[in-house]
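Tutorial sheet, problem 5. The two components below are modelled jointly, 231 residues in total.
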Amino acid sequence: EIVMTQSPATLSVSPGERATLSCRASQSVSSNLAWYQQKPGQAPRLLIYGASTRATGIPARFSGSGSGTEFTLTISSLQSEDFAVYYCQQYNNWPPNTFGQGTKLEIK
Amino acid sequence: QVQLVQSGSELKKPGASVKVSCKASGYTFTSYAMNWVRQAPGQGLEWMGWINTNTGNPTYAQGFTGRFVFSLDTSVSTAYLQISSLKAEDTAVYYCARDGVAAAGTIMGFDYWGQGTLVTVSS
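Model answer (structure tokens):
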């Protein structure tokens, strides 16, 4: 089973600044990686798939990069609505579709 | 528009069973696989498995065999999750989530999610 490790567990950033979140796979997942955003009391929302393609309706300030085992989600200029928990998920070698443990993005 | 609407919260006693529904609308139900994801209180997302909505064939992740059953009623575009012999540790929010398929036919993660169903197991 592929293990997905996200870092940091918590990231404190000021509004308007850039946030960089990392996700590492225990073995190559090619570009078959997705990022999700989850706000309290809500279902996760797909942000990025294929490691770098924004899902429909996702603002351009969200970008994804990487391939193989190292991936990054960058939010270029944080808005108040961006403070949430972010999960990566690999769908290259499944089952199982494994999620990372999440990064909580909080207001500094 | 695509929607996945799940049944409401449940409070069950240990040993009981529960059946969670996920009603799909806005697309052809049998064209997209359906996944189930568990989120225990304060914890992350855990993939439970998926069901082929065309054949009805389920696949369960490790740790979700035996007491967990995925099923369908394609006549009403609904997927079901049944959990039997409930334990306190089954207390969680359960989500259904559709397998997304990009225009090129490639998988794109889970593009639509239900709102979640809280199952609480307590005596």
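Marking note: Chain B touches chain A through 25 residues (CB under 8 Å). Full credit if you identified this.
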